[in-house]
Structures are given as structure tokens and as C-alpha cells.
Amino acid sequence: MCYGTKSYDAVQPGDQDSGGTMSIARGVIELLHAIDPNQPAARVRSLEQVRAESVAAPRLTTNLLGLFALLALAIAATGIGGVMALAVGQRRHEIGVRMAIGARPAEILRMILGRAWRWR
Questions:
Q1: CA 3, CA 119: separation in Å to the nearest integer?
Q2: Cβ proximity of 84 and 116 under 8 Å
Q3: Which DSSP symbol is given to 8?
Q4: What is the mean pLDDT for each group of 10 consecutive residues in the chain (120 residues)?
Q5: To which H or E segment does residue 24 belong?
Q6: pLDDT at 75
Q7: How far is residue 41's CA from residue 67's CA, in Å, rounded to a whole number?
């Protein structure tokens, strides 16, 4: 077995041509088949492809979790807005009287928010 007839200079670490790493992989596969044609060389992938496949499922899970969190936040904000609208609607007469006797809008807002905070 004489391996001196084949030039192994074709594959150098750090070689970057237009094909990138997959062209290097093809060169390695050709060299492997030149040495032993019975050697399997299936599923040759770049490290970037392996990394992308390994993080695909966690990325999907994270995106779905974020989507459901935003949905829950929107539903909670809508609920709080509805409760506040109900509270203000029920006290509309009182608010009108307070404003008529000279209460400033900031005081009315503080009163509404203070009672909403202590709501039981």
C-alpha cells in the first residue's frame, strides 16, 4: 500500500474557498474513499448545521413560551382596565361632586388608584 502517490496538501486547516467548509468535507470524503472505498462517509455536516439542529427545539419552546407570556400579559392588562373602568363608572357621581367643589384631576386620580390598590 503506497500512499505517497496521493497529495494530501489539498486539505489544509483554515482553507476557505468559495464553497466553505463543505468543500473541505467533500475533499476529505474523496481522500477517504481513495484510501478505502468501503468506508462509510454519510451525514457529513458542518458544525453550524449541527448547532442549528441542536438548538431548534429549545428555540421553538422559548418562542412559544414568550408568545404565551405576551398573551397572558395582554389578557391581564385588559382585565385590570375593565375593573378600573367599572370602579370609575360606579363612582362617577362622587367624582363629579369632588371636582365641582374644587378637587384637582391629580387628586381624583390618586383617589381612584389608591382605592383600586386597596380593593378587596
A1: 86
A2: yes
A3: G
A4: 46 50 82 86 82 91 97 96 90 93 93 78
A5: helix 21-35
A6: 98
A7: 41
With beta carbons less than 8 A apart as the criterion, state whether 63 and 71 touch: no
Q: Which amino acid is at 120?
A: R
Give the pLDDT of residue 120.
54
Q: Are 84 and 117 in contact (CB under 8 A)?
A: no
Integer Cα distance of 99 and 58 in angstroms? 55
CA gap 107, 99 in Å, rounded: 9
pLDDT in the model for residue 20: 72
Gap between the Cα atoms of 33 and 36, Å rounded: 5
What pLDDT is attached to residue 12?
Answer: 46
- Which of 73, 115, 117, 78 is closest to 94 using CA atoms? 115
